[in-house]
Design brief:
By secondary structure, this protein is of the alpha/beta class. The chain has a domain of about 150 residues: Rossmann fold. Helices cover about 40% and strands about 20% of the residues. It has seven helices and eight strands; from the N terminus they run αβαββββααβαβαβα. The protein is globular.
Amino acid sequence: MYFEDRSHAGKLLARALSFLKGREDLIVLGIPRGGVVVAAEVARELNAPLDIYITRKIGAPYNPELAIGAVASSGDVLLDEDLINDLGVPPEYVEEETERQREEIERRMAKYRGDRPAPKLEGKTVVLVDDGVATGATTMVTIRALKRQKPKELILAIPVGPPDTIARLEKEVDRLICLFTPELFWAIGAFYAVFDQTTDEEVMRLLEEGRQRGQRMR
């Protein structure tokens, strides 16, 4: 299965999540940046409010796309100690990169949300959306941070991911929806015809649209 772009993937995910339509306690969270484009389509189709949960990958030296861990806006950090040891990554690098990603999270929080408070998730049906998973490190730390907020139900919805990662993540959530789990998996973008960079401006526009929809539902 291949997706035309993130919007197309979001529409297909929304179909798979149609059983949620009409739930008053529903909220959709996108992981910036690309995940917000997918999440926006899901929220639009389900007529649900849209917000973000910011988690940043800690990339390996000389290969920033390879996640050796992740840090969440809550402060939670998840490190792949086995991979760090296998690659011989120095502790100083891990500390510096973690701090750098914390600073990027703060920058994005200020830009995307401003002084608006984060949504309260306790007792809510939360749908967490990204444009795909690879190692799952970023997604795992997000899930664990969200579970601390005691949602009624936590659903992970993603277009594509490798079977082993999906199996691991499935144990962490109440329900997992993944449209495609190819055995041969090399990169998320390989399963999209268009997988261009999502801009801050696009994320802000989609979030504003989602906020307005949430206000109309009150």
